[in-house]
Design brief:
single chain, 198 residues, mainly alpha, two-stranded antiparallel sheet, 7 helices, 2 strands, 62% helix
Amino acid sequence: MGEQAWIDAAAVALADLQPPHVERKRATILALVDAQLAGRPEQSVWGTPGVCNRGTYHLKWKFQPDFAAALATVSRLAREWRDTRALRALQGAAESLALAAPAAVAKAVGLMDSQDDRVALSAAFGILDRAGVETAGKSTMVGTVKHDVDINLSRLADDELDALARIAGRLAGSAAGAGAAEVPKDAGALPGAVLSGL
């Protein structure tokens, strides 16, 4: 429900309030709903100008059918509107992350060629962490929207796989010293084609 739609529906509910004190009843309902949505206690409402006092609300108005119905309707509409906005915001954030993922992968792959071994290693492990067979099925739940990320080394281009092999070779070379290159124990997540090239 859009903002204007819920405001219109709430206005219809408030228009059903019966005299006397219609304006004060409206103000009280709006103040109570505002406090509910903001997580403030009901007591915070009673000092607000234009609303009834606590005794009038608890002893009279909340038992009047028109007031009780309007309060329930406006509360429900406001919660639905807030929840819908929150879900849309979460969905928008998830979509933004999904759209940014290819650029992030390209940046990480590019950083694997860095002359700084720490940067290259960090980029390689970042990619391997998200691309390994064991971790390929990553997903996030947002409301009822599911976003699956299925990145697999088989999707990497040859130059990207070569860059991974170079990083693995550098790691193996630095781990083994000047002797024969050993495959690092973490290299098990690399596909066989890359391992055989080491």
